[in-house]
C-alpha cells in the first residue's frame, strides 16, 4: 500500500486506542511514524528513499514483506523503541513516562502489517517461516486502496472529534 494509506489507517487505529488510554495527539503522531517503518525493506518506499543503503541491504538479504512485516519485526521495533526512549529518559533526567510513545510506534507498525495483509501477495507474519498470509485483494494504487484510505481518514476525523470533545 501507499504510505498515505498506512498513515491514514494508523491514525484511525491510534484514535480508537486513545479512547481507552488517552494521549490522542502523541498516539496519532507516533503511530504515523511507526506506520512507515516496515517499508524500510523497499528502496522506493517513502522511508526507503530517505535512508540510503539500508533498504537495499534489507531487501537483498530478506526480501520485501518478510522480516520487517512479521511478528519478529514488530517485537524488534518494540524492544529498540523501549531501549532508545529509556536511554533518552535516563540521560535527559526526565520524569515523564514514554510508554504512550512506545504504544504509538507499536500501533503504527502493527497497523502497517495488518494493512499489507490485505494485499493479495500477503505478508510473512511468522518469518522466518516462508508462509504468506493474505486477508484480501487490495492491490497497490487500486481504487480499493483509495477507498480504504478515504474510509480510514473519515474514521480518524470522527474519532478525533470524539477524543477532543
Word description of this protein:
The mean pLDDT is 94. The chain has 165 residues and is mostly helical. It is globular, with a radius of gyration of 16 Å. It is built from six helices and no strands. The longest helix has 22 residues, at 143-164. The chain has helices at residues 3-21, 24-36, 54-62, 71-91, 99-116, 143-164. Helix content is 62%, strand content 0%. The chain has one domain.
List the topology elements.
Layout: H1 3-21, H2 24-36, H3 54-62, H4 71-91, H5 99-116, H6 143-164
Gist?
62% of the residues lie in helices and 0% in strands. It has helices spanning 3-21, 24-36, 54-62, 71-91, 99-116, 143-164.
List the keywords.
165 residues, mainly alpha, 0% strand
Quote the average pLDDT: 94
Low-confidence stretches: none
Biggest β-sheet, characterized?
A: none
Structural class per helix/strand content? mainly alpha
- What is the element string, with H for helices and E for strands? HHHHHH
Task: Tell me the total number of β-strands.
Answer: 0
The proportion of strand residues reads: under 5%
Distance between the termini: 32 Å
Radius of gyration: 16 Å
